[in-house]
Amino acid sequence: MVTFLGFPIEIRNICVFLAPVFSAFTSLTGYMITKEITGKSESGLFTALFLSVVPSYISRSVAGSYDNEAIAIFALVFTFYLFIKALNTGSLFWSSLASLALFYMVASWGGYSFIVNIIPIFIVGLILIGRLTTNVYITYCTFHILGSILAMQIPFVGFQAITSSEHLASHTVFVFMNVYMFCEWIKNQIGEKRFSNLKKFVILGTLNLIVIFALFAMLTGKMKWSGRSLSLLDPTYASKFIPIIASVSEHQPTSWALFFFDLHLLLVLAPIGLYFCLVEYNEGKLFLALYGVLSAYFASVMNRLLLVFAPALCILSGIGVSETIYKFVRHITNYKSWQEYVKSRKNAKAARPRYGIPIEISIILIILIGYAISNYIYHSVWATAEGYSSPSIVMSYQHNGEKIIIDDFREAYYWLRMNTKENSHIMSWWDYGYQITGMGNRTVLVDNNTWNNSHIATVGMIFGCDEEDAAFYLRKLDVNYVLVIFGGYSAYSSDDINKFLWMVRIAAGVYPEIKEEDYEADGVYRIDSQVTQKMKDSLMYKLSYYRFGGVGGYDTARRVHIGDKDFVLKHLKEVYTSLHWIVRIYEVLPEEFREFERSRSSYAELSENVLLKQNLTKIKIRPIDE
User: Fold this and answer.
1) Count: domains in the chain
2) Where does the record place the Oligosaccharyl transferase STT3 N-terminal domain (predicted)?
3) What is the rounded CA–CA span in Å between residue 411 and residue 267?
4) Among residues 474, 473, 439, 464, which one has the least CA distance to residue 447?
């Protein structure tokens, strides 16, 4: 479309700049929703400022981050803006636009379920406090009906918009609100006294029928909760029943350090904004308060949802800063007006205004607020540069004052592209599937699609087997190469050994013969001298620590000496180990040919040729030709 308009652009540039462009749209939308809620442009400007630099959102919208979540957050905030606009006007036009925005959100991200649940909760709250108006009724009916119909047009959702438990609250509130409004209409027709008992009977009966229907649908399997939704309601659910969800670092509970690193000053300013929203409230401010409280809970349960929490915090902070500064500035303005009045009428005696605090303190506090905001901007720029701007496959760190670039991933994928056949099949853990496919141009056994975890469980089972059994499964699956990530040499902690326990747990859900306790020593995950025999014989252990004894056998990531430093491989052959030993690739030998077992003496001679160095850049393991 851009080319059609006369601006030729490469698809690569679109992928690079798409996320920053949508982040700019999000900042503009943040300004509009804040102005719509408060009626003040100043609050909207502060919101736009905070949204433009908050690290939680930049982590998904930095240039080159071609991710649907950068678009989804814009769709989320834009849907809320149109919904509040529809509430304020009671217009079918704005309600329809809100439904279209929801449709865009559904098409972009599965997190749309947050919208279809928070809005019904908000409607119930309005009913309970007696603020269910005609505007609210028109807006929600239009939004629910059109939104559900449009959501069903997305193949990803389909008829789940009706049968899924994530949509149950939306349907329930829609039915209940219509029954409630019908009762209100009858009351106006026949009088409140004659209708009081009938109203209670109708409303309570409707609620009972809805609860019975919902229980029946869930017990009979007509409606089901997704694993991610249950993990939000019960933080322990995933670790008990769906380990593949719990294994992802983004699905872990959020630490206080991460809250402060990502949100910084907003954690202080947002409660102030929440206070001002509740002191002089309207429908928009009540919705914003609900959005902030619920998103805070979800963000504490799953650190990935800091992304949803950040816009709410920015809007509340914008309101808090604006209202606070306004009170101080108003006192200064009143004080100056009083001085001018006294000068113009020298003989008149005017009482000194008693609004607020002394003018000197007001000026100092405004300066301190400005300093705090500038410090927040400085922190956000630093946090973004350090934590969220580096490519995920190229790492850098300081070593003895020298900056070291670790490019092992990219070099390993390039080696796969150049040194393996085009029809080769690669087995690795699912975290690296898309990277191998995209950069190595090779077919993988599992990728980052986790909708069906049985094939991922199969890979976990193979890594947990001994080499003999693993080789049998690898040949049956037509696997040519096995790739493992190992950080014991370079102190890289996000390696496959640290992820191995999750591999076992995921595999155990499909293959009952895999038992987690077989890999633990007295209930503890060990790779040192107390390593269990099952763990020591596993394919993951052998592929990670093969020839590692020759460089000392000290695992710098786990800070222990490994339990088995002297073993050989029979069914797999090492073909590539990257510069810092982070990526190791092994070829699966044909069944009719197995690599001969080296004698202990020849293995010792090989190990003596490789010395452990302090400067990691001096060692490079070349592809082995045997």
Assistant:
1) 2
2) 3-316
3) 41
4) 439
